[in-house]
Specification:
little secondary structure; two-stranded antiparallel sheet; single chain; 6 helices; 3% strand
């Protein structure tokens, strides 16, 4: 009896005679081997998933490959890795060959990779920030919101407040003293989410300066209140301390436009009113006199 030796991916398959050493479909797998495992000897792709029988059979230790261990060999399994995506649909580049598609760059073709997004090019938590980038930043590639501030990691690129902590790991992205998780939406409609806006209400007074108090007791914290003292004058118009009493006008309920402190240390560096009966002019004269006397 003549023995013919056929090699199928490292497995030696023996045919008892020359008559049995046929490969009807020319796929590189002998007919007898295909019959043994229930494959179609007239088709090079028995399950029609665009991956040939030769590549899917891949005999090891005498057994054909069964990637997802579902007891259906890959050569007959329409979903080799059992991820719910048919093998034929894991041809991401559409060239008809799923063997060359590896979206996450882990060296495993997608149709055999149950976790298509865990490699360096993938995004396992689907937060918009790739696994490699997360590894570099020190964020958690399995948690879409590493710092728990309510914003996905992919939205927190950069270091808004320049404190050396990337936003993706910073609980207060803009460094305004209000935790990012407590800064929702875009209060002033300037296109910057409050979490990265140094002036949430757009009144010209930084959030860090306004703080979380509620000067007028209306239930809206100062940093979100366009009229923090409730005097009917928008904060954006009350940027100074016209009466030099040490209380900025946006928080001052008793602004005296015609009076100014006489102490040089208070007057220096402040913008005082020069209207209202001339009180402001008198302050300037007094300041000049004080300076002259000290010479």
């Amino acid at each position: 009896m003549t023995l013919r030796l056929a090699i199928v991916f490292g497995l030696f398959a023996f045919a008892p005679s020359a008559a049995l050493a046929y490969d009807t479909d020319g796929d590189g797998v002998l007919d007898e081997v295909e019959r043994l495992w229930g494959l179609d000897i007239y088709s090079g792709d028995s399950d029609g998933d665009s991956v040939g029988d030769l590549h899917e059979l891949e005999l090891r230790d005498g057994l054909p490959r069964d990637t997802d261990a579902d007891e259906v060999i890959d050569a007959l399994d329409p979903d080799d890795d059992g991820d719910g995506i048919p093998t034929i649909d894991e041809d991401r580049d559409g060239d008809g060959n799923p063997l060359n598609d590896d979206c996450d760059g882990d060296g495993i073709p997608d149709f055999r990779d149950f976790r298509d997004h865990d490699g360096p090019l993938g995004d396992i938590d689907e937060d918009g920030l790739g696994n490699a980038a997360e590894a570099e930043l020190g964020s958690d590639p399995t948690n879409p919101d590493t710092d728990g501030d309510g914003r996905w990691d992919g939205e927190e690129l950069g270091d808004t407040d320049g404190d050396g902590i990337p936003d993706v790991l910073d609980e207060d992205d803009d460094g305004d003293g209000v935790l990012s998780i407590d800064e929702h939406g875009d209060t002033d409609g300037d296109g910057l989410p409050d979490a990265i806006d140094p002036d949430d209400d757009g009144d010209g007074v930084p959030t860090a300066e306004e703080g979380t108090g509620d000067r007028d007791g209306d239930g809206t914290p100062n940093y979100l209140d366009g009229d923090a003292d409730g005097d009917g004058i928008p904060d954006v118009e009350e940027a100074n301390d016209v009466d030099c009493d040490g209380l900025d006008d946006y928080l001052d309920l008793e602004v005296q436009h015609s009076e100014c402190a006489w102490d040089e240390s208070v007057i220096a560096g402040r913008t005082c009113s020069v209207g209202g009966g001339g009180g402001g002019w008198l302050a300037l004269v007094a300041l000049a006199w004080i300076r002259r006397e000290r010479r």
